[in-house]
Amino acid sequence: MRGLPDIDARYWLLLLTASVCGTNLGDFASETLRLGFFGAFVPFTLLFLAMVFAAGRIRFMSEAYYWLAILISRASATDIADLATHQLRLSYPMLLVAALAALALALAIGARLGQSTIATAPGADGRLVSRPAANATYWVAMIMASAFGTMAGDFLADELGFGFARAALGSVALAGFAVTETLSRGKISKLGYWGVVLAVRVAATNFGDFAAGDGGLGLGFVISSLASFTLLALFTLTWRPQRLAQAS
After folding, report:
1. Whether the Cβ atoms of residue 134 and residue 1 lie closer than 8 Å to each other
2. How many CB atoms lie within 10 A of CB 21?
3. Which of 73, 157, 216, 229 could tie 167 with a disulfide, CB 3.0–4.6 Å?
4. Which residues contact 203 (CB under 8 A, 6 or more apart)?
5. Could you give the count of Cα atoms lying within 13 Å of 2 in the half-sphere of its Cβ?
6. Residues 80, 118: contact at Cβ < 8 Å?
7. What is the CA radius of gyration of the chain?
């Protein structure tokens, strides 16, 4: 996939925004449209697979395509995670451990196959720049991380009784600390990258539920999805990556 973003402060903010939008979009399809968790999971998954398949065949590829794939994959992961926890009533701790194990297994198998999930190359100023690799291993790992984020966020808010507001405040603060710590180091490792992704995914679940739910801002799934999608589009189109700004 071409047109991939640099992993910097801008990247993490866009990942949070796309994740919030995907969370609310998944809930909108399953609850507001009454498709059910599995009924919403299927079309999102098929759309995501079609996007990944088409990525290598589209000559002109912009960064927006990557963020749209992130959004759709998050919506799909939200519905399958809710199916497991809300409908099948499986244990949260068991599912969280299983999601982490699946993530680790996907990364290990990808490494054995020679697929790294982070690509590092010289930037416009000569410094090394890291970008997501966006291969098969990357997307499988991202879906596992998204499912973990949905389940962990709901576990904090519902099972542990923090509620939307406190869970959102705590998880967003933790994600902010993880991002700040990573940016201060300059170079990011594979383990560090996926650790921050997990933190951002949890924060997006709690913040999305806080924005849409009656226990939070009460915007509803439609307005909250449209608001986060609008922010994502504005950030992507108007906040130019550093390498593009330097080249212009």
Report:
1. yes
2. 28
3. 157
4. 16, 19, 153, 168, 171, 172, 174, 175
5. 8
6. no
7. 17
* Residue-number span of the structural domain to which 41 is assigned: 9-247
Give mean pLDDT in consecutive 10-residue pieces for the chain, a chain of 248 residues.
86 98 97 96 96 80 90 98 97 98 97 93 73 94 97 97 96 97 88 97 97 93 97 91 51
Tell me if 157 sits within 8 A of 167, measured CB to CB. yes
- Considering the entire predicted model, what is its pTM? 0.94
Asked if residue 1 is part of any domain, the answer here is: no
Question: For the chain, what's the residue count?
Answer: 248
What is d(CA 131, CA 141) in angstroms, rounded to the nearest whole number?
Answer: 15
Token code pair at residue 192: 């560090």
Does 119 reside within a domain? yes
Q: Backbone phi, then psi, for 59, in 5-degree steps?
A: -70, -45
Residue 70 falls inside a structural domain: yes
DSSP secondary structure of 157-223: IIIS--HHHHHHHHHHHHHHHHHHHHHHHSS--HHHHHHHHHHHHHHHHHHHHHHHSTTTT--HHHH
Burial of 112 (0-12, 13-18, 19+ CB in 10 A): exposed
- Looking up tokens 């992130």 gives 70
Q: Is residue 4 part of a domain?
A: no
Rounded CA separation 242/215 (Å): 39
63 phi, psi to nearest 5 deg? -65, -30
Measured over all CA atoms, what is the biggest interatomic distance in the chain, rounded to whole angstroms?
53
